[in-house]
Amino acid sequence: MISMEDHIRTRNSYEQAQAGIRHSDLSIPIIHNGKIRIQFAGEATHDRIFQTAVGAFLSGRRESDRILNDLKK
């Protein structure tokens, strides 16, 4: 028989951030030569309502706004 304790490390679907890291820190884009090259969206990157579908949606909106603003430069 398999007990839950045998698989205790597989219960969570995410890795917790290091101490001192804020959720908003996860949304900082990678910039190269003054242009945004890599952006991060998803529920874990929202600073107030992480771990929700709304947080995921809003982070996507945030990044799409960031793309549009970057294109206007």
UniProtKB/TrEMBL annotation:
Which InterPro entries does UniProt cross-reference here?
A: Amino_oxidase (IPR002937), FAD/NAD-bd_sf (IPR036188)
Outline the extent of the Amine oxidase domain.
12-68
Residues of the signal peptide: none
GO MF terms on file? oxidoreductase activity
Name of the protein:
Amine oxidase domain-containing protein
Species in which this protein is naturally found: Panagrolaimus davidi
